[in-house]
Amino acid sequence: MLKMISRPAVKLVERYLPDPYIFVLLLTLIAAAAAIAVERQTPLAVMRMWGDGFWNLLTFSMQMLLVLVTGFMLASSPPVKRLLQKIASFANTPGGAILLVTYVSLIASWINWGFGLVVGALFAKELAKLIKVDYRLLVASAYSGFVIWHGGLAGSIPLTIATDGHFTADQIGVIGTGSTIFALFNLAIVVCLFIVMPLVNRMMLPDEKDSVYVDRDQLEDATDEKGPARINRPAERMENSVILAWLVGIPGLIFLLDHFLLRGGGLNLNVVNFMFLFLAIVLHRTPRSLLTSLHEAVKGGAGIVIQFPFYAGIMAIMIQSGLAASMSEWLVSFATETSLPFWTFLSAGIVNLFVPSGGGQWAVQAPVMLPAAEALGADVSRIAMAVAWGDAWTNLLQPFWALPVLAIAGLKAKDIMGFCLVQLFITGAIISVGLVWF
């Protein structure tokens, strides 16, 4: 049945879903028009919101670009490539490849979302080198694991409200992760997704006549093609010096040990990028090997560089005009104590299309959702996780987060979003039931 459903969904998306750049331009116009029509903002005011907020994600844009680049460099190092190839060898059939890449992506995304994005995409490439399988579904399966991230160890909303002095502490206090990430309802959702998502992806596997395969030669990296460099100049000795690389790389790894073991630090995007980079420096052994990998990695970063500023402008319009709050207020206006988590989840999913940032979305929705939860007597921790899951859920439809995966895999959004559309409806049902009934 899922194979039959996914076929028209894939064709529909391939035909009508524009390039992510066109998508972000359309979202910009929709957000601006809605702010003028619904919030009675003047065109000049909306233009100023958009322009003033256009560069607000510069730090995050650089972080995301580094997720792509450092993750690619790490995965292209000889030891990691051998490890990925070893794990990929456990899959002997196309269906086995789909199951395996989904499990790997789910596990990695539950640990950390940036880690999951890169590992899933790179592992999909390794599987495609070994097994003849529909490459679109393979990459979509790798991306599907990302839906779990906000219910995992790096969920920004549950970690925010578990931190002393967070911006809603006066209203709700500090809520530990035992009431959010490790609460029974959240663990039930996570377990269900771990069971259902690999099976869903497997059941969408197209027949051979409908499958789209990738030329395996296109998956080979430039780092695979060349042997040891011939050294003719003193400068080349430094470029091929293992000692020079390790004199910098090993202290970086020692810093990470100090961060985790002695100072009790956790994972965040900067730490993940630092870890990827210095592991890559050590495992590539020479600066020349690392630079060759870097040259290949940056080719896929164009979408991140050009599109993220537009999303920053959209977020500014949505937040400053009051449009995001109005959308949330309308959706929860007819909620009850029991149904509030569902309507919160749904509103968060819609807002996420325009404000694709967990922390940013909580800043927008907390002032609406928390008073509603207090008025209805609903569980605040469940409402917070409903916002978190809504933020993660519609990432399956939002090209914003897929850009690093698509860049690594060498695909376009329209290639995978048909499968993601099916995943969207199924995961939405699972998360809704978990939020309301567990």
Would you give an account of this structure?
The protein has helices at 2-16, 20-38, 43-53, 58-75, 78-88, 94-111, 113-130, 135-144, 156-161, 169-172, 184-203, 234-239, 242-262, 269-284, 287-297, 302-320, 323-332, 340-354, 358-376, 380-393, 399-409, 413-437. It has 438 residues and is mostly helical. The protein contains 22 helices and no strands. Helix 6 runs antiparallel to helix 11, helix 18 runs antiparallel to helix 22 and helix 20 runs antiparallel to helix 22. The protein starts with a helix and ends with a helix.
Q: Mind summarizing the main beta sheet? A: none
> How would you sum up the global shape?
globular
Separation of termini? 28 Å
Following the backbone from N to C, one meets helices and strands in this order, namely HHHHHHHHHHHHHHHHHHHHHH
Spell out the key features of this protein.
about 450 residues; mainly alpha
Short description:
It contains 22 helices and no strands. It holds the Pfam family SCFA_trans.
Secondary-structure map with pairings?
Layout: H1 2-16, H2 20-38, H3 43-53, H4 58-75, H5 78-88, H6 94-111, H7 113-130, H8 135-144, H9 156-161, H10 169-172, H11 184-203, H12 234-239, H13 242-262, H14 269-284, H15 287-297, H16 302-320, H17 323-332, H18 340-354, H19 358-376, H20 380-393, H21 399-409, H22 413-437
